[in-house]
Specification:
By secondary structure, the chain is mainly alpha-helical. It has a domain of 122 residues. It contains 8 helices and no strands. Helix 3 packs antiparallel against helix 7, helix 4 runs antiparallel to helix 6 and helix 6 runs antiparallel to helix 7. The longest helix has 28 residues.
Length: 181
């Protein structure tokens, strides 16, 4: 079985030095997202046991399982996008709209996977810092998805119907699924 990896194509994605300066394709959303994901490498705060009790093992194990599940979902969503993959909220001109597979379950499964991984890390570590990072990711990914959807509606005539029938990131959570709003 031959696996084709998507190419790293910064020009095709619309990445440019000018964009990093003026946010023309949503580059600042990407920077915020990457900074928050990287911050998950920070040690837990408060330190485990700092409050005089050990973090419950079942919660730590549940967190590890959620992290692994999030990674699996991320891989599925990553591969499902194929040539439409871009880290920016603006779609690649001429790329097909993907609405099946992981994208039939929700419109932004990569964001869903990132949030699930963040929740997993927070639970595994019992860290208030990582809980704060999760909440910040909710805000950033919710905002990035809204910007992305404005661009998708302009690029794809069928996007409005897809949007009406498919949850955004997490079904029925107001900031992460705005179909009912």
């Amino acid at each position: 079985m031959l696996i084709h990896l998507p190419k790293f194509q910064p020009e095709r994605w619309g990445l440019s030095w000018g964009g990093w300066l003026d946010n023309r394709h949503g580059e600042w959303w990407l920077l915020a997202q990457l900074a928050l994901i990287a911050a998950h490498l920070l040690p837990p705060w408060p330190a485990p046991g700092a409050w005089g009790y050990a973090w419950p093992l079942p919660l730590a194990l549940a967190g590890a399982i959620l992290l692994l599940l999030g990674l699996v979902l991320a891989v599925q969503a990553f591969w499902g996008l194929g040539s439409s993959l871009t880290p920016l909220p603006d779609p690649i001109p001429g790329a097909p709209l993907v609405t099946s597979g992981a994208y039939g379950r929700c419109r932004h499964p990569l964001y869903q996977a990132v949030l699930l991984c963040s929740l997993g890390v927070s639970l595994a570590l019992g860290s208030l810092l990582h809980l704060a990072l999760l909440l910040a990711l909710v805000a950033v990914l919710g905002g990035k998805a809204r910007r992305e959807e404005r661009a998708l509606e302009l690029a794809y005539p069928d996007y409005a119907a897809y949007r009406a029938r498919t949850p955004a990131i997490i079904p029925r959570l107001p900031w992460l699924d705005w179909r009912a709003l």
